[in-house]
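To whoever is covering the structure queue this week,

Two jobs came back overnight. Logging them here so there's a record in the thread.

Job A:
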Amino acid sequence: MTTPVAASWVVLDIEGTLTPTSQVHEVLYDYARPRLGPWIDAHPRDPEVADAVSEVRREAGLPSDAGTERVVAVLHEWMDADRKATPLKTLQGLIWQRGYADGELTTALFPDVPGALRRYRRRGAGLAIFSSGSAAAQIASFSHTTDGDLRGLFTHHFDTANAGPKRVAGSYRAMTETLGTEPGRVLFASDVPAELDAAAEAGWRTVGLARPGEPFGEADFGRHRAVASFDDVDVEVPA
C-alpha cells in the first residue's frame, strides 16, 4: 500500500515526469525549429521578441546588428545542445502557443498523469509547474492534451525566468515564498536527481520519477524516493 506524502503543494517538472521526453525533443522542437526565423522576422516590433533576440546576440557574442540568419543559427545550436537558455525558451514558447491555439500541437501525457493530478486536487493539494520552458508555453501545453484542457488544475507556473535555475536551491526558496507555505509542506516531483537535490536543500519533500525508457529511467536517485509512475505517489494535506 502506498504511504501518503504530507504536502499542501505538489510542484511538478514536465519533461520526463508528466510527458515523454520525445514530446519536447521531437514534437515541440521539430515544430519550433523551422519557425524561429519567420517568427522573428514577422514580429520585429514585439517587445518580447525584440528583447529575446537582443539577449541571444549578447549571450552568443554577436554584433548588436546581427541578422536573423545568424541569430537563428545560434538558436539551433542551443536546441541541439538542449541548452536551457531563457531567450530560446521565450521564442519557442511564443511559437508553441500559436501551435496549440491553432490545434496543430497536442501534449502527450503519461497515462498515469491525469488521474494523479485530479486525485491530488481532490485531496486539497495545490498544483504548480516548474519547468525550463516558459510559463506561457507551459500554460499553452496544458490547454490541449491527450486528456483535454487541464489548465484549470494548476495555480502557479514557474520557469527559469520567474524562479531561477532548476538545479539551484535558491530557486526553490523563491517559489516557497510565492506559494506562501513552509518548505516542508511542498512536494517536488522530477525525473532529474540534481533538481531533486536542489529542492531537498531548500527543505522540500521530493520524489523521483524513474520511468522506463526515459533518459533518467535508470538514474541513481540517492536519498530520494524513486517511483515508476504517479500511481505510487499519494498526497495527504496536513491539517
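Job B:
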Amino acid sequence: MDLYTGKLLSNSKLRESDQTSFAQVLLNSSSRLYPLPSEWNARFCFINAFAEPVKILHGYSRNIENIAYLINLNGNKHRVWIPHLKRCIVFKPYTWKHYLGGLLGKLGIMKTKKG
C-alpha cells in the first residue's frame, strides 16, 4: 500500500492501477510465483481456451450464473469461449479450422488474401 500511495502522492495526475504496484512489490519480494491455468482466472469478456471446468470467473456481469453454466456446459472437453457469441466451441479434430472460419464470417471478419 505504501508504494501505491507514494506513487499517487508524487504525481497527482498519475492514474495507476493498484495491480501494477502489487506486481512490483510481489516481484521484489522473496515470494514464489506460480501461474495458474485459465480455469482458475477465466476472464470471460475475452476469447479464452479451457480444458477443464472453470473454477473462477473474472469480470462483471448481471448474469454470471448463466455465463458459468455456458462455459462449463462441456467442462471436461477442450473448448474455446467466444464472448460475442456467448458460447464455447468444443474442439473436434478435422472440423476445428472449418468451424472457426465459419465463425469469422458470422462475426463479420473477412479473410484477406495476400497479394
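Note for Job B: The chain has a mean pLDDT of 82.

Please reply-all if you pick these up so we don't duplicate work.
Q.
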